[in-house]
Amino acid sequence: MKTNHNNIVNKLPKVELHCHLDGSVRVQTIIDIAKKENINIPSFDVNQINKLVRVNSDCTSLVDYLKTFDIPNRVMQSKYSLKRITFELLEDAANENIKYMEIRFAPLLHIHKGLSVDEIIESVLEGVYEAQSKYDIKANLILSCMRTMTVEDALLVINSGRKFLGKGVIATDLCGPELEGFCETFKDVMRIAKNYGYRITIHAGEGASGKNVLDAINILGAERIGHGVRINDIKIAYNAVKDNNVLLEICPTSNIQTKAVDSYDNHPLYKFYKDGLKISINTDNRTVSSINLTDELELIFDKYSLDINDYKKIYLDTVDASFADEQTKKWLRNFI
């Protein structure tokens, strides 16, 4: 495993739990859809769009990073585009031997051309079903609620998605710019979601302090945390993650780009792992961060001199913490 030979990592079975649909759109597809649906984008030149939808090295924060999502979301406003983009994400994932993926997206970002929340979820599910029929991959959806939107907006997503639970929708999430103390606002929403049968994962401890991670666990009932790197600075939050067996969905490259962490050398993931915290390695946004899971794993394994036994441990912890059904988990465990 201590190698630069990408093809070794590529052949390993993989699971990804933290991947945003709108951050993982093929650049050529953005151009194709813009032409087909007469959508205004700054250019039809691949190189130009490439520059605009990928984060550059002078990104200063999570808020800055999120600006790159404007163009992809412009072309994700039709049933056709949502289905195609979902299918292509899973096709890309299958090509690097990802066996299971949880795709997250915020339905309310896709209502600007008149689609209902139901139609949006159905279109993404159609992309999932088509990919599953063609490739050896399984996927489920996480419906994200934007922290910049209202509680009523979040309830709309939760209520609309309810009928798709068990049919490809499995969980909900809160994402977008992170303010201190956001959890209290969404307490009732997440309680309702849990009662309906949604699993809960929350973005926290990325753009603000580890205290948000503590609140996500205690107030919102988070079973997993997106990122969570800032628990490194707050002992009580760190212990809550450890004691409650909450898996951290770590996205190393993205964390450095958003300045949640200043370098790979200072990324706490290895410390977390060695101390017995459950972690999974993820891309976050394949296009925006210019990364795929093979490259992300390669980088991490080289950086921290991990070996195949470490890989198995991380893989199996990831499978256990996934929101897949038991049959799918069994299928995934058999690959290792």
TrEMBL record:
Free-text cofactor note: Binds 1 zinc ion per subunit.
Record keyword Metal-binding present: yes
Site (Important for catalytic activity): 227
Function: Catalyzes the hydrolytic deamination of adenosine and 2-deoxyadenosine.
Domain Adenosine deaminase: 13-334
Keywords for the protein's UniProt record, in alphabetical order: Hydrolase, Metal-binding, Nucleotide metabolism, Zinc
The protein's name in its UniProt record: Adenosine deaminase
EC number annotated for this UniProt entry: 3.5.4.4
One family name in Pfam for this protein: A_deaminase
